[in-house]
Amino acid sequence: MLRLLEEKIATPLGPLWVICDEQFRLRAVEWEQYHDRMEQLLDIHYRHEGYERISSTNPGGLSDKIADYFAGNLAVIDNLETATGGTPFQREVWQALRTIPCGQVMHYGQLAERLGRPGAARAVGSREWHEPNQYCRSVSSRHRA
């Protein structure tokens, strides 16, 4: 059974859940107001192997690193080790999301091109929102303002 260590931390933007495994690989990051969505995504990705959530304080130093991000060290998130479920394509999209510089906006078609799949903008867009670790990156429809 997968044991997930979790902590809800205070940030300038509101409470944020930080969840990692026992190897301190980030499994989920989600704002408190989307807690229900986070639980649904954890179930989707981990229910087959089974998991339990365990309250923890600063698991693996992750809470401190995320606090450091909010203090202005934007690069700190680039080195966070993650572990995600999902299909190979989903993991490929999520890895590509991590290459987008903080503060830069990209549309799904650009991300699909970056993946070498120029016709996959719709698939990229539908996959991004199912990632429990999707944080601090902005990808949108070409037509969204």
Automatic annotation (TrEMBL):
Molecular function per GO: methylated-DNA-[protein]-cysteine S-methyltransferase activity
Highest taxon, organism lineage: Bacteria
Entry's Gene Ontology BP terms: DNA repair; methylation
Pfam families given in the database record: DNA_binding_1, Methyltransf_1N
The EC number(s) this enzyme carries: 2.1.1.63
Entry annotated with the keyword Transferase: yes
Domain Methylated-DNA-[protein]-cysteine S-methyltransferase DNA binding: 88-126
Protein name (Swiss-Prot/TrEMBL): O6-methylguanine-DNA-alkyltransferase
Organism: Salmonella enterica subsp. arizonae
